[in-house]
Amino acid sequence: MLFWSTLTLLAASVVMVYSASAVQSLSKYESSSHFLLRQLAWAVIGLVLMLGIMRVDYHEYRRPIVIWSLLTVVVIGLLGVFLFKPTNHAQRWLSFAGVSVQPSELAKLAAILFTAALLERRMHRINEIGYALAPIGLVTLVLTALIVKEPDFGTSVMIVLVVIAIVFAAGLHYRYLFGVMLMLLPAAMFLVMYKSYRLKRMLIFLDPWQDPMGDGFQPIQSLLAVGSGGAFGKGLMAGVQKLFYLPEPHTDFIYAVISEELGLIGATAILVCFAVITWRGLRIASRAEDSFGAFVALGLTTMIAVQAFVNMSVVLGLLPTKGMPLPLVSAGGSSMLVNLLGIGVLLNVSQHQVSGA
């Protein structure tokens, strides 16, 4: 079910990226299939990698040389992005020969593997801050600090949430969990207040119609797309909001295009696929043959589920606008590859699960 839900989302991605981007692609590149071909290529590459990864024993990933090599590559990549010119006022990409990759996406996997491997050895003393929590906190701080600098506040929060989920599952006492949350709250508030555009997003979230042609334009257009789709949608390729009304319709707001063209039925089908992935991922974590497999499965499931929840919530006006793609669906190579690699690891962990658990 995990495998077929993933394939369903991949198929929906290729179709909906073309539908959402055809007009803009024709205007910008003089070819309506520019984004379609790129997304199809990333989907095929990612699928091949997923099929390969699911055949690699996940125990190989807890080897120190694998974890520290991955962390080194990620840190070098996160530093390297600052050598490239900003894109949309952000330095998140490494660009080579027309291909761009986001090291911050790979940082999610690095954080999950490091946390899972360390806790497997030290979870019996999980409540000793210096022994178990300090190394995890240090690595997480380094990764998130570099990502915030890009700036990419959403991915930083995602990494922190995934790490907290794994640490909590390892048996961290409630008082430490609440303590960490209380420590992170002022830091998050400072980061929101520090950048004026983040503060504007928070205020616009409360009432988008206070500035309908400015900062409120994007969330309003998203709500119009979702609302106008009705139960059955306007039909594939028949959407209106993607015609230069809704910014980035093929990336961050592709769920709005799906809702407009395929209606409540299509939007619910996508939601069901993510629900199945979440359910199967948590089930795999609960049946893993060892704690490392359980932590890795939990981290990967949390990574995909929370990101999907945030993206869809932004589209529906339930959260402030945040540039976060819909996993396995939005246009983009780095996110697609990392999520498919995560699914591949999940499928491998499921092959080693304890029978009858």
Describe this protein with a few key phrases:
mainly alpha, 357 residues, two-stranded antiparallel ribbon
Stretches where pLDDT is under 50 for at least 5 consecutive residues are none
Reading the helices and strands in chain order gives HHHEEHHHHHHHHH
Most strands sheet: 2 strands, antiparallel
Q: Give the strand order of the largest sheet, numbering strands 1, 2, ... along the chain.
A: 1-2
Query: Beta-strand level of the residues, as a percent range?
Result: under 5%
* Overall strand count: 2
Report how far the terminal alpha carbons are from each other.
18 Å
What report would you give on this structure?
With 357 residues, the protein is mainly α. The protein has one domain (2-351). It is built from twelve helices and two strands; from the N terminus they run αααββααααααααα. It has helices at 2-29, 34-53, 64-80, 103-122, 129-149, 153-169, 174-194, 196-206, 217-229, 254-287, 291-315, 333-351; strands at 94-96, 99-101. The protein has a two-stranded antiparallel ribbon. A hairpin with a 2-residue loop joins β1 (94-96) and β2. 43% of the residues are buried. The mean pLDDT is 89.
